[in-house]
Amino acid sequence: MNYEMQAEVFLTMRGYRRCDIVACNCGSWHGGFADERLLEIANYIRECGMWKGTILDSVKFMARDVCKE
Question: pLDDT tens across 36-54, in order?
Answer without folding.
Answer: 878 889 999 999 999 999 9
